[in-house]
UniProtKB/TrEMBL annotation:
Its cofactor is FAD. One of its GO terms (molecular function) is FAD binding. Residues 49-227 form the FAD-binding PCMH-type domain. This is Glycolate oxidase subunit GlcD. It holds the Pfam family FAD-oxidase_C. The keyword Flavoprotein applies. The keyword Zinc does not apply. InterPro entries: FAD-bd_oxidored_4_C, FAD-bd_PCMH, FAD-bd_PCMH-like_sf, FAD-bd_PCMH_sub2, FAD-linked_Oxase-like_C, FAD-linked_OxidoTrans_Type4, Oxid_FAD_bind_N, Vanillyl_alc_oxidase_C-sub2. Keywords: FAD, Flavoprotein, Oxidoreductase.
Length: 496
């Protein structure tokens, strides 16, 4: 079970004073102190891990965010930034001695600039809300996580979210131009802008995917794109995950970069079809959705090439969308795959790891063996084009020990990803879920360097504590040591 830092008893004892100070900074409607009301913030989308926060604040402006952070910095109170709470890595899990800083009230689009193809939005604007705001002019925002109807642009930046179209159009980091953020001491910074690139250090690259450890984002400038003239999708069924994986590799090797290329295995296909009824074939072991976009003549040509590759890879079924409604129906199933898994299991853990495409068949085979070893079900849904896996581990939390088994199973999957040359996360972040696996991928020198960056922004470790960095190594991180009552712990041990 995931462990969080031990709460500071001194902060807990000051709770009433802290709440009064927050009421002095914000209107009564922007502070949640009641225990029942705080329950809404005790977890994010990883509901297996829960912790009641000390208090919740919902600032309405950058100035209010700055005031709250400045107070918390001076009072030594930890802060957990939170967007829509759709994090799948426990990234917004509260700490008992800290406040949750919710950004849901900062939910306005501030500027739409079609000539510069940019939108300036507050962090609480939903991902899909940006595309909807510019759709009338034929534009859209490319990154499209499955939770795009709910997840917010601020959270997308924090986790460097991707989506089904990230193969061709990139992750969040490839689609943002500027940020406004507030540091833990209340300092407000503006980085980048509407230009395609900013001079100097790559601060946007550093902050995108920083999971709320370095600052609180209060404004985002994103790049918008023209909608492709034509977009069509192929729905391809295969006799095995291995043949589907081979098809993925051959498409990329042929120099074809689809707008999106997604894969589902049999359990995911059946759960999804029962949920959305879009006509997925039920007699196949694996399903590929391959979308091609661009000028119509190019799309028609690429469909022929992909169709021929699928035939060579033993495709059993093949459907090509003939209308926009049919194309969207193909994607409706894939977008609903995660909630659909609730039809086949009381609980599930959605993992997130990335592997080289060449290792796809090997990893899928090994995951099946692990499923049998742990006696737990598994459904695979993932971004096949860039090797970003999202295996769903099926379990029942009401059965003693099953959550522990599911966590161990997930850990073995992530270790496997690293073993074959991949990484621990593609878009969900590290959070608490992968925190203690960081040494599998990084050496202590690597982790120390990352901690030093964290210390430069947040020297007292008040922003999103307990996330990303393994807890067991914290006694000496950044060259620091905890001293209580003026006495060194274990004074007989040699120091380093």
């Amino acid at each position: 079970m995931v462990q969080m830092p031990v709460p500071d008893s001194g902060i807990l004892a000051r709770r009433d004073d802290i709440v009064r100070a927050l009421y002095a900074l914000l209107p009564e409607s922007c502070v949640i102190a009641d225990a029942v009301a705080r329950r809404a913030y005790e977890c994010d989308a990883v509901s297996a891990y829960r912790q009641l926060p000390l208090a919740v604040v919902l600032p309405r402006t950058t100035a209010e965010v700055s005031a709250v952070l400045k107070y918390c910095h001076e009072a030594g109170v930890p802060v957990v930034p939170r967007g829509a709470g759709t994090s799948l890595s426990g990234g917004a899990l509260p700490v008992a001695d800290g406040i949750v800083l919710g950004l849901g009230k900062l939910n306005k689009i501030l500027d739409i600039d079609f000539p510069n193809r940019a939108v300036v939005a507050q962090p609480g604007v939903t991902n899909l809300g940006i595309s909807n705001a510019v759709a009338h002019a034929g534009f859209y925002y490319a990154p499209d996580p499955s939770s795009q109807i709910a997840c917010t642009i601020g959270g997308n930046v924090g986790e460097n979210s991707g989506g089904v179209h990230c193969l061709k159009y990139g992750l969040t980091t490839n689609n943002i131009l500027g940020l406004e953020l507030v540091l833990i001491d209340g300092t407000i910074l503006r980085l980048g802008g509407k230009a395609l690139d900013a001079g100097g250090y790559d601060w946007l690259g550093l902050l995108t995917g920083s999971e709320g450890l370095l600052g609180v984002i209060t404004e985002v400038t994103v790049r918008i794109l023209r909608r492709p003239a034509t977009a069509r999708a192929l729905l391809l069924g295969f006799p095995s995950s291995e043949t589907a994986g081979d098809c993925v590799g051959q498409i990329i090797a042929a120099g074809i970069i689809p707008g999106g290329m997604e894969m589902m295995d049999r359990p995911a296909i059946h759960a999804t079809e029962a949920f959305v009824n879009v006509g997925y074939p039920l007699d196949v072991e694996a399903l590929l959705i391959v979308e091609l976009d661009g000028p119509q003549v190019e799309v028609d040509h690429l469909i022929e090439r992909v169709s021929a590759i699928a035939d060579r890879c033993s495709a059993m079924t093949k459907r090509i969308s003939t209308s926009e409604a049919e194309r969207m129906a193909f994607w409706a199933g894939r977008k609903a795959a995660f909630p659909a898994a609730g039809r086949i299991s009381p609980d599930y853990l959605c993992m997130d790891g990335t592997i080289p495409r060449r290792a796809l068949s090997q990893v899928l085979t090994r995951m099946t063996e692990l499923s049998q070893h742990y006696g737990l079900g598994l459904a695979n849904v993932f971004h096949a084009g860039d090797g970003n896996l999202h295996p769903l581990i099926l379990f029942d939390a009401n059965k003693p020990g099953e959550l522990d088994k599911a966590e161990a199973f997930g850990g073995d999957i992530l270790k496997l990803c690293v073993e074959v040359g991949g990484v621990l996360t593609g878009e969900h972040g590290v959070g608490v879920e992968k925190r203690d696996l960081m040494p599998v991928m990084f050496s202590e020198i690597d982790l120390d360097q990352q901690r030093r960056v964290k210390d430069a922004f947040d020297p007292h470790g008040l922003l999103n504590p307990g996330k990303v960095f393994p807890l067991l190594s914290r006694c000496a991180e950044g060259g620091k040591m905890h001293v209580a009552g003026g006495a060194l712990p274990h004074p007989d041990l040699p120091r380093f």
